[in-house]
Amino acid sequence: MKMTKIFAITLGALALTACSQTMKQPEKHSHWGYTGHESPEHWAQLSPKFAICGEGKSQSPVNIVNTIDGKLPPIKIDYRPSNVEIVNNGHTIQVDFKDANNMMHLSGNTYTLKQFHFHVPSENHIRGKSFPLEAHFVHADKDGNLAVLGVLYVLSNENQRLSPIWSNFPQKAGEKYTPDTAFDPSTLIPEKRDYYRFSGSLTTPPCSEGVNWLVLKQYDKVSQSQVDAFSAVMKGNNNRPVQPINARVIVE
Questions:
Q1: Cα gap 223→233, rounded to integer Å
Q2: Would you call 91 a catalytic residue per the annotation?
Q3: How many domains is the chain partitioned into structurally?
């Protein structure tokens, strides 16, 4: 109960700003990236709006090492086939939802799935281990508080459930593709939903804090060719390095 209150306080004032910035991620002309003078170590200097990327004390991603047992409430997923738009925003491949009919229920709160996107290699680590791919499912509640569900992938054979996205990558930044058929995001969520929970931030500028992070313990699979195809479209990796834990607690 105490841990729930802590998260509620943390997510309060800052999350509305984080939500509005997340919705702006597809902008074409964002002057940040993952290489050279626009790489993550320089984000805080690129704009005053990005200062928290360097000053923040609850930044994401993290290396999950030390945890406490908090008897976390179950994650209830209510996703269904939906109309989507696949966007190459220059920083990732993002799948935006045109309908507000995909919900995640947690601790008596309801979050609507806004979009999901990918990072190669993973941004979050588990006990020092990096993964070839990570998906972030970005949700917001009615007050704008954000909850991001992270799914990590291990190398295996081809993941056919990713095919509707992978076979329709927009090849250039700013391009979009609207599939003719609905896509069911529930196919990308592992059946077992034990998770790690911590307070964090957006992993891209402006790095707004107050984001409720949920990283699933069960991994999904992806092939090396799928990883390579994503990297080719992105022209390299698109992951922010892990950030200091500082005074935060990771609950499992």
A1: 16
A2: yes
A3: 1
